[in-house]
Amino acid sequence: MKNESPPKPTPTELSILGILWERGPSTVREVHEIISKTKPIGYTGVLKFLQIMTVKGSVRRNSDQRAHVYEAFQQEDKTKRQLVGDLMQRAFSGSASELVMHALAGKRTSQEEIDEIRRILDAHERKST
Amino acid sequence: MKNESPPKPTPTELSILGILWERGPSTVREVHEIISKTKPIGYTGVLKFLQIMTVKGSVRRNSDQRAHVYEAFQQEDKTKRQLVGDLMQRAFSGSASELVMHALAGKRTSQEEIDEIRRILDAHERKST
DNA sequence: GCAGTACTACGAACCCGTTCGTAATGGCAA
DNA sequence: TTGCCATTACGAACGGGTTCGTAGTACTGC
Q1: Is pLDDT larger for residue B11 or for residue B128?
Q2: Contact B103/A108, CB-based, under 8 Å?
Q3: Does A117 touch chain B (CB under 8 A)?
Q4: Residues 6+ apart with CB under 8 A from B64
Q5: Do B67 and B80 reside in the same domain of the chain?
Q6: B96 and B45: one domain?
Q7: Same domain, B80 and B67
Q8: Pair A16, A63 in one domain
Q9: What CA–CA distances, in Å, run from A56 to A8, A32, A59, A74?
């Protein structure tokens, strides 16, 4: 047993985690204000998810204040790695190049993005050599 | 309305589609033999999925033979593109470079894979200029 | 023609993600 | 202190993905 394997977040959980990763610790109200712009969900809905995620251990609650403050406890990197790895395995038999190919085919990508990816490749190459 | 938007396959459906994409038209028995090596599922379970997918339109059935032959009807490229695009949007705010970074971080990648990705980048660059 | 076998069809049930409605709690103002 | 408002807590319900058990159907050998 070597890694604590963060449970795979459901779609809605991921949306919420994303907000917490980006904004840092936030109250239910803050999360709700942001997420409701893109997803139809009520205040208590967000709260419910935060509670579930608290039980699962993917977020932590600080109840010092009246309005409880939640923060992401699940590691951003590890979670994202797992999500991509899972899809890569299930849809592309583990082939990274196939994954990249379809990722680029799906949307227009700026020159900066492409250059950035090249840098990532260089760095990865140097590391693993 | 321009694209027929292939419905997003569920995890198990994707496993089956993958087999059909790779092997071509197959019978229930053949699919079951392959998938049961990695996933605990019975014969009728596979059949059930094939039936559901037939209704959804992602596979087609040929009942000329006694053992019906199923073939993938859903486009491989389009489906994969959608899956990656969806994850990229939900987990990485649409950033292709972040996606690639975490994909590579998740597993060891051979030199050939990396070179292949570079080729893909080159091709994509040329096309979009 | 009859029994046995292999395959397909159908329906029920279960689990989990998701959502909502309502009750309980605690602080603030008058 | 009392009443109002914001916030949290809890439970129920709905839907979809997944699985399994059983019934129906067609072919094969005797």
Answers
A1: B11
A2: no
A3: yes
A4: none
A5: no
A6: no
A7: no
A8: yes
A9: 11, 20, 8, 10
Measure A65 CA to nearest chain B CA, in Å: 30
- Say if residue B126's pLDDT is above 90: no
Cα gap A116→B72, rounded to integer Å:
36
Measuring from the CA of residue B32 to each C1' atom, give the nucleotide at the shortest distance: C7
Percentage of chain A modeled with pLDDT above 70: 94
Contacts of B116 in chain A (CB under 8 A): 97
Best of B101, B126, B127 to disrupt the A interface (most A CBs within 10 Å) is B101
Residue B3 has a pLDDT of: 43
Give me the CA B47–C1' D22 separation in Å, rounded: 15
The candidate with the shortest Cα–Cα distance to B31, out of B21, A92, B55, A90, is B21
Distance between the two ends of chain B, CA-based, in angstroms? Answer: 27
| Residues A61 and A21 occupy one common structural domain | yes
Quickly count helices (H) and strands (E) in chain B: 6, 3
| Residue B1 belongs to some domain of the structure | no
Domain-ending residue, one of B38, B53, B72:
B72
Asked whether residue A28 falls in the same domain as residue A64, the answer is yes
Which residues in chain A (36-95) have CB-CB distances under 8 A to chain B? 77, 80-85, 87-88, 90-95
Q: Are residues A83 and A112 in the same domain?
A: yes
Number of domains present in the structure of chain A: 2
pLDDT in tens, A8-66: 899 999 999 999 999 999 999 999 999 988 888 989 999 999 999 998 889 998 888 87
**Full residue range of the structural domain in which residue A83 is found:** 76-128
